[in-house]
Amino acid sequence: MGDETVLLARQGSVATLTLNRPECLNALDQCLRASLAQKLEAVSRDTSVRAVVITGAGRGFCSGGDIRLLAEMRKSHQSVAFRDFLVAGHRLVRRIRSLPMPVVASVNGPAMGGGMNLALACDLRIASDRAIFSQAFVNIGLHPDWGGTFLLPRMLGTGRTLEMFLLGDPMKADQALELGLVNYVVPHEKLEAETKKLAERLAAGPALAIGLMKQALYERLETQLDSMMEHEVEAQMKCFESEDFEEGLKAFLEKRRPKFKGR
User: Fold this and answer.
1) DSSP count for the chain of H helices, then E strands
2) What domains sit in the chain, N to C, each tagged with a CATH number?
3) What is the pLDDT, as a whole number, of residue 106?
4) So what's the pLDDT on residue 3?
């Protein structure tokens, strides 16, 4: 099952990883996370791969953490499993950034919470004009994870980042382009072709120089990223046992507005 939740396809020197849980907008669970880690490891060992694309099956890129899984963890107080889930996600962020080849997020629809931060971890982002982005953690009483507290302010600045974190409102693709959150926005029906064109152009570039460019930009930042992701885990663990998180999950599943009490 884990192998099927992320599909790996090769076309020339471009590898495409497709998150494959379309029935739930490719929500992140243990199987998808493990499959993505496995596929990234396979790609990292393949010297013939010169560019990587990450995208989603169906009408979404990634809706973030699987709410039903989180609700199950919270109900049975699986704090150790929750911590392991967070730490494994952070390893994926580091793996993407450490790949020597460029990684492109092809955002075909909603990119929410951890799904948005997965896209931010990639080197470039090309989005459909139907894509939306949201740091929706606050809506269920959680703290951002998957490196969002490190990655997002370096793209948007502190003020815009706090706006996204504190309000949880969605951002449309055209605004994301204007603010520099994505590199390109294209008509939805052209996304696959334009992604292919971009990835092939990157794959045709000088692999050694490109790898060294990534290293130069990321290497000194990695200790800060690690520190921020460690903070994310500790903050999420505090939120995990809170009444507000329990209420946020119930409200989401019951399709109503949550009534947070601040505890």
Assistant:
1) 12, 9
2) 2-190+204-208 (3.90.226.10)
3) 98
4) 67
